[in-house]
Design brief:
60s Ribosomal Protein L30, Chain: A; seven-stranded mixed beta sheet; 32% helix; globular
Length: 189
Amino acid sequence: MVHVRTLAMSIFTAALVLGAPVAAQDLSVEQITEAFKKQKTRGLVIVPNAAAASTVATDTAAATTVAAATEEYTPVDAATQINVQIAFDFDSATLREDQKPKLANMCASMKAMDGTVFQIIGHTDSSGSAAYNERLSLLRAQEVRRHLIGDCGIAEDAVQAIGMGESAPFNAGDPRADENRRVEFQALG
């Protein structure tokens, strides 16, 4: 058991050193929490420009931001990004039942970091128009937020959602690549 844990930490460390995205569904709660702590110490700040961003009221009247341009989104280094590949049906923002287990460790880690505000950033590939992808990415981030609040018990004010559409691909060399369709998690403080 100790060897398996050591191997898992070695793989996690290698991913951080090599700049690979951290896939939350493959990590333990402790590893996700450690990655969040590294994000917080790097001084991450995401402040949407109020003039360029549009605000969308959610069902609970909490404000959610749609980032309108890449300069409003400051991504965490690829090495400390915490990405979850969530599969959605075509043209749908409904979180499928088979995808919810991928968020279990994320939920436990968020609960362990009480008092931290998290941002969920939805991303798409470049299929479709930029405006359509921006809206779809926001809806998907909001759906993950609703799941974390409703099913996992994360406090509403601890989770924000924004949609980046296709503007911040993980794989810029292939804008239609599967890894660009993701939900990224960031610890804001």
